[in-house]
Specification:
Layout (H helix, E strand, L loop, with lengths): L1 H22 L10 E3 L17 E7 L3 E2 L7 E5 L5 E9 L3 H16 L2 E5 L11 E14 L4 E13 L4 E14 L4 H30 L8 E4 L6 E3 L4 E3 L8 E3 L6
Parallel strand pairs: 1-5, 2-6, 2-7, 3-7, 4-7, 9-10
Antiparallel strand pairs: 4-5, 7-8, 8-9, 10-11, 12-13
Amino acid sequence: MNKRLLHLLLILLPVLQTSCAQLLGGNAELPQRRFYDFKAEPVRNAMPNSERPYAAQVQIKPFAVQRAYNRTEIIFRRDQYELHRDPLHSWITRPGDLFTDAIQQYLREANLFTFVGGDHDFYERRPDYILSGTVKAIERFDSGDVWAAHLAIAIQLVRQEDSFVIWQKDIDEERQVFFPEMKHTVAAFSQILNQQMESSMREIDFIFLNMTRDNGGVPAVFDTLGTGAALADTVLQVEIETDDKDYELLPGKLAP
């Protein structure tokens, strides 16, 4: 009796396996959790007659992240009110660490300063400048048929000796993605950061180039929030020349 039952089960097993596969959609596989990272991409050093590296030591502080986005799961939204965590798609580490490492790498590869490091590099030395920032949003918009990457970051470079803000930038950009796979959204995040860092390196280069020239040692602050002009704590007028000419700061006062 047992042998006949075993024989029957052996006959039915392939049939049962085929039926289950059909119910699950053929060669069904359980979804696997995927992890994503982005790194600094090469940037063009388009600043004419740059004198980089400038004699300064810059400390990159760990980037802060708004609480809603400070997790490894990639955040997505379907409308302006509702946020979701994606259980199948995660960052390789928390976003604060991703941005801290990426921006430190951008500064190093741009060769802007004689030394760029993180907190662990400044245990026994004092930085000349501190770069810090806050990730305000890093999210994927997904309406089901429209996808986009939204990245918002605030960054500033502060002179250590007097806490003077040398440079600051607010990034808030959304870029549409034409394919639903998450890897395309992650690539869009990377592209946004790359283009913003490329312009940021030129802005910082512009400021330090003029600080090294005979302008009384007054630092210019590049205003990226409005006109894009360079402002100084004693109010400078900026003349930006195109083509092959240098950027030059001219002393004076703005008209009231």
